[in-house]
Amino acid sequence: MNYEHLITVEAGKRSGKPCIRGMRITVHDVLEYLASGMTAAEILTDFSELTREDIKACLSFAADRERKLFTAAALRPEFTKSGAGRSNQTAS
């Protein structure tokens, strides 16, 4: 899903956290509601300004961020299987 038009980041709003369509509702807020057991329908009832597309955008944003973190970690030798437990320090 292309969420770039739905997820916005503004330095002066919610400390620069990713928000939904410029509102003060963050991606994290929506993910926390879902993780706590709220359904999309319950979230939409409590936050009438949100849409189903907004909720899907939050999930897509989180999935992309997770993929990017995993990719970045895979490129760092200290996080690969062969580099596990290695220290940047040398023995004296």
Distinctive features:
two-stranded antiparallel ribbon; Arc Repressor Mutant, subunit A; 92 residues; 4% strand; 3 helices
Brief synopsis:
43% of the residues lie in helices and 4% in strands.
Describe the structure.
By secondary structure, the protein is mainly alpha-helical. The protein has a domain at 7-70: Arc Repressor Mutant, subunit A. The protein contains 3 helices and 2 strands, in the order ββααα. The chain has helices spanning 27-35, 40-46, 52-75, and strands at 7-8, 19-20. The chain has a two-stranded antiparallel sheet. Helix 1 (27-35) packs across helix 3 (52-75). The chain is globular, with a radius of gyration of 18 Å.
- What class do helices, strands and sheet pairing give? mainly alpha
First-last Cα distance: 52 Å
* Main pleated-sheet profile: 2 strands, antiparallel
Global geometry:
globular
Overall pLDDT, averaged? Answer: 87
The secondary-structure element order is EEHHH
CATH superfamily of the domain at 7-70: Winged helix-like DNA-binding domain superfamily/Winged helix DNA-binding domain
Which architecture of the domain at 7-70 does the CATH hierarchy give at level 2?
Answer: Orthogonal Bundle
Helix content: 40-55%
Secondary structure elements and pairings:
Blueprint: E1 7-8, E2 19-20, H1 27-35, H2 40-46, H3 52-75
Antiparallel strand pairs: 1-2
Helix pairs in contact: 1-3
